[in-house]
Prior knowledge:
- By secondary structure, the protein is an alpha+beta fold.
- The protein has 3 helices and 4 strands.
- The longest helix has 10 residues, at 15-24.
Amino acid sequence: MFIAMNQFKVNPGREADFEAGWRTRESYLSEVPGFVHFALLKGDEPGDYISHTIWESRQAFVNWTQSDAFRRAHAGGMPEGILATHPRARFYEAVIEQGAPLAPARG
């Protein structure tokens, strides 16, 4: 399992705009082999969000970043003034897994 996350710092008062942008966009993730799960997480700190994706492997994630689906999903971008800083990407490879296995997402 491979996890890719982007941490976002949203400007005060723009949280609803940020969330709406994620709710209304087409991600195209279900078109990509190896995609398992997506969640947009909201932290306890004001304006703290993380996009969290789970992949079958690091290579599946890399393939996504090089795909036409990725380009289409990111074509619109985030409207100006919503983000306080550039997102911070973090990547993790599973070393130990417990619990029921996650099934790949279906489109």
